[in-house]
Design brief:
The complex is a heterodimer of chains A (479) and B (166). Chain A has helices spanning 4-9, 11-27, 39-59, 73-99, 105-123, 127-145, 152-183, 188-196, 204-221, 230-237, 240-265, 270-292, 298-319, 322-348, 360-363, 365-379, 385-399, 403-429, 444-462, 465-476; strands at residues 62-64, 69-71. Chain A contains 20 helices and two strands. Helix content of chain B is 75%, strand content 0%.
Chain lengths: 479, 166
C-alpha cells in the first residue's frame, strides 16, 4: 500500500483526472451548441489545485510507487510550466469555441487529461511510465487537434498527427525494448548503473542503437529534424488555441523526458549521442528558420518557428552541462509564454494569412501592440524574455566549446528576425483592407491571457534573475 | 523438435507479414495479420511464456483482429486503387534504405552475438501468478494510469465520431 507521502507526490495527476471526470459528468447537463458558462472556471480551479499540489509535493522531494515517479524540483518546474500553459489554453480557447458554437466539456476534459500525461512525463523515473505518459499526452493531443470536426483542415491535421505520432511512438517503444533486453531493467537509475559499470555493461554500440531509437521517438515529439515535417501542417490545421497549447506544453514535457532519460539513463554513453544531438540541433535550426521565410500563413509560419525554437533548445541540451539544463528550462518557460501569446492573437483574427494582419494597428491597437511584443521576444530583442533565453542558450554552448554550433545558431536566429519583423511591418504600415473596419475588443479572458503573457515576456526581459535562479535550482537535482 | 517448430512458425510469421503489406484487398491483409499474431503466439509458447502466448491470442488475434475485420466489412472496403501520384524519391530511396537498415542490424547482431546472452526454448518459467504479483506491486502505478489512457481513448472516440444533433 503506498503511504501518504507517495500519494502526495501523485496528487497533481489525481486532481487533474478528477477535475476532468467532473467536467465530463457536468457536460451531460448541456445541449450540444449551448455555452458552458461555468466550465472554464471549473477547469481553471482544477488546474490551480493541481498547481498547489505540485508545489506541496515539490517541497518534499523523493520517489513514489517503487521508484516509478521521482518528484524533484526539476519535475515540479515542468509540472507548473505545463499547468500554466493549460490555464492559458483554457482562457483563450473558451471564447474561440463559443464563437464557433463548439464549446464542450470534452474539450476541457481532454485538455486536463493531456496535462496528466505531460505531468507524468516530467516526473517519470521509469521507461514504462515515460511511455504511458507520452501516450496519454499524445492521444489527447491528436483528438484536440481534430476537435472542430466540420473543419476539413482540422481533420487532416489530426489524422496526420495521429499517423506520424504513432509511428514515432513505435520507434520509442522499440528503443525501450532494446534497453530492457540489454540491461534487464526499465528504471532510469538502474540502467545508468549498468551502463556505467564496465564489467557488466553491454557493448556500447548496442546501447547507442537503443539511445538512437529513443532519440528518434523523442525528436518527433519535439519536432526536431528529420522528424519535423508534421509540425507546420498540424499547427496550421488545428484550432488556433489548440495549436498554441500543442506547441508549448507537450513539447516542454517531451524536452523534460529527453533530459531525464538521456542525462540519467544514457549518461554513461553520452559521448555516442552528444555529437548526433548537436548535428540534429543545427539541422533543426536551419530547416525551421529557412522554411519559415517563405510562409504567408502566419499559423504555418509559427509552426516552422516552433521547429527552429526546438533547435535552439537542443543546442542547450547538446551543451551537456548544468548551465545548459537551466538554459533549457528558462527558454522553454519563456517560449511557452511568448509563443502562446502570438498564437492567441492569431486566434482573434478572421483568418491567419499575412494579409489578415494588414493594418491591425489601426483596427485594434492594443492587440497589435501585444503581438509586436511577442514577436520582438521571438526575435530575441533586448528587454524581452526571448533575449535572455537565447543568451543563456548560446552562452551554455560557448562554455561547452561548441563554437560552431553557437555561431551558426546565432546566424540562423538573425535570419529569423526577417520573418517575424515582416508581420510587425504589415501590422503597422499597411492600410486597413477594404470592408474591414475597427475590430471588437477581444473577450475578457483572452485579454487576461494576452496581458499576462506580455507582462511575463517583458517582466522576464527586465528581471530574468528569479526564473533563472529557479531553473538553476531545478537543474541541479537532476542527476 | 523445438527448432523445427520455431523455424516453421517463424517463417509463417515472416511470410504472413510480407503478405500483409503486399496484398491489395484489406480483408486479405487482415487475415495475414491474424497469421502473424497466431504464429507469434506459438513462438512465445515455445519460449515457455504461456501467459503472454494466451494474451497474444485473446487480445490480438481475438479482440483486435475481430474489430479490424468488422470495420473493414462495415466500410465495405474494396480493393485498394493504385494511387495516382507516384512519389519517386520515396520509391527510389525507401527500399535501399530499408535494406541498409536491415543489413546494419544484422551486422550488429552478428558482430556482437558472443557478448549477448542467448535464449533457450522453454527458458521462461514465470506463470500468471508471478506476473499478477509484480503487476500489482512494482507496476501498480503504470497499471492504474493506463486506465486514464483508456478513458482518453473512449472520450476521443466520442468527440470524433458522434453524430451532429441538429
Amino acid at each position: 500500500m503506498p503511504n501518504a507521502e507517495e500519494l502526495l507526490r501523485f496528487l497533481p495527476e489525481m486532481i487533474l483526472t478528477l477535475a476532468a471526470i467532473f467536467l465530463m459528468l457536468w457536460e451531460s447537463r448541456y445541449d450540444e451548441h449551448d455555452e458552458r458558462p461555468g466550465m472554464p472556471a471549473a477547469a481553471l480551479i482544477g488546474l490551480g489545485l493541481a498547481a498547489v499540489a505540485s508545489i506541496l509535493a515539490g517541497a518534499a522531494p523523493g520517489s513514489a510507487f517503487r521508484n516509478m515517479l521521482i518528484v524533484d524540483s526539476f519535475a515540479t518546474f515542468f509540472r507548473l510550466l505545463v499547468l500554466a500553459v493549460g490555464a492559458l489554453a483554457v482562457l483563450s480557447a473558451s471564447p474561440f469555441l463559443r464563437q464557433r458554437r463548439a464549446e464542450g466539456g470534452e474539450f476541457y476534459a481532454l485538455l486536463l487529461l493531456s496535462l496528466v500525461g505531460q505531468s507524468l512525463m516530467a516526473a517519470s523515473n521509469e521507461l514504462i511510465m515515460v511511455f504511458i505518459g507520452i501516450e496519454i499526452s499524445s492521444i489527447a493531443s491528436y483528438v484536440l487537434a481534430g476537435y472542430l470536426r466540420d473543419d476539413k483542415r482540422a481533420n487532416e491535421s489530426a489524422l496526420k498527427y495521429f499517423l506520424l505520432g504513432s509511428f514515432a511512438t513505435g520507434f520509442l517503444l522499440y528503443g525501450v525494448s532494446w534497453i530492457y533486453g540489454l540491461t534487464g531493467t526499465t528504471n532510469l537509475n538502474e540502467i545508468a548503473a549498468i551502463l556505467g559499470n564496465a564489467d557488466i555493461a553491454p557493448n556500447a554500440m548496442f546501447s547507442a542503437v537503443a539511445a538512437a531509437l529513443m532519440l528518434a521517438g523523442l525528436c518527433f515529439k519535439v519536432s526536431a529534424f528529420p522528424f519535423q515535417s508534421w509540425a507546420p501542417d498540424v499547427y496550421q490545421g488545428a484550432p488556433t488555441p489548440v495549436s498554441a497549447f500543442l506547441s508549448a506544453a507537450p513539447k516542454a514535457a517531451a524536452f523534460a523526458t529527453l533530459l531525464r532519460v538521456f542525462f540519467t539513463a544514457f549518461e554513461p554513453v553520452s559521448d555516442r549521442w552528444l555529437p548526433l544531438l548537436a548535428a540534429v540541433a543545427l539541422a533543426t535550426m536551419v530547416i525551421g528558420n529557412l522554411a519559415a521565410l517563405w510562409q504567408t500563413d502566419v499559423k504555418r509560419l509559427l509552426g516552422y518557428s516552433s521547429i527552429a525554437n526546438a533547435g535552439y533548445v537542443l543546442v542547450a541540451v547538446a551543451a551537456h552541462s548544468t548551465l545548459g539544463i537551466s538554459a533549457v528550462l528558462f527558454y522553454l518557460a519563456v517560449y511557452a509564454v511568448m509563443n502562446f501569446g502570438a498564437f492567441a492573437v492569431v486566434a482573434l483574427l478572421e483568418g491567419s494569412e499575412l494579409s489578415d494582419f494588414h493594418g491591425l494597428a489601426k483596427r485594434q491597437p492594443v492587440t497589435a501592440g501585444l503581438m509586436a511584443v511577442f514577436l520582438a521576444s521571438l526575435i530575441g530583442l533586448p528587454l524581452t524574455a526571448g533575449f535572455f533565453g537565447k543568451f543563456y542558450i548560446f552562452k551554455s554552448a560557448i562554455d561547452a566549446e561548441l563554437y560552431w554550433l553557437a555561431g551558426l545558431g546565432l546566424l540562423t536566429s538573425a535570419v529569423a528576425a526577417f520573418y517575424y519583423l515582416r508581420i510587425i511591418v504589415v501590422m503597422y504600415t499597411k492600410p486597413v483592407p477594404e470592408g474591414r473596419g475597427e475590430m471588437a475588443a477581444p473577450a475578457a479572458s483572452v485579454q487576461a491571457a494576452l496581458v499576462f503573457s506580455a507582462a511575463v515576456t517583458i517582466g522576464l526581459g527586465v528581471f530574468p534573475g528569479w526564473l533563472l535562479d529557479w531553473a538553476t535550482r531545478s537543474s541541479g537535482l537532476l542527476r | 523438435m523445438d527448432l523445427i517448430f520455431f523455424l516453421l512458425f517463424a517463417s509463417i510469421a515472416v511470410g504472413c507479414g510480407i503478405s500483409l503489406v503486399v496484398q491489395k484487398h484489406p480483408i486479405a491483409s487482415a487475415l495475414s495479420l491474424i497469421g502473424v499474431m497466431g504464429s507469434l503466439a506459438v513462438l512465445y509458447l515455445l519460449l515457455g511464456a504461456e501467459f503472454i502466448a494466451a494474451v497474444q491470442l485473446i487480445v490480438y488475434a481475438g479482440a483486435i483482429m475481430v474489430l479490424f475485420v468488422f470495420v473493414i466489412m462495415l466500410l465495405n472496403a474494396a480493393e485498394e486503387a493504385p494511387s495516382r501520384k507516384t512519389n519517386w524519391p520515396s520509391r527510389l530511396l525507401g527500399v535501399p534504405l530499408l535494406a541498409v537498415f536491415v543489413a546494419l542490424l544484422a551486422y550488429l547482431f552478428d558482430k556482437m552475438s558472443p557478448s549477448l546472452g542467448t535464449v533457450t526454448f522453454g527458458a521462461f518459467t514465470t506463470g500468471g501468478k508471478q506476473i499478477g504479483r509484480s503487476l500489482f506491486n512494482n507496476y501498480l502505478l503504470p497499471f492504474e494510469v493506463t486506465s486514464v489512457l483508456v478513458l482518453i481513448a473512449i472520450l476521443g472516440a466520442i468527440v470524433l465520431a458522434r453524430k451532429e444533433i441538429d
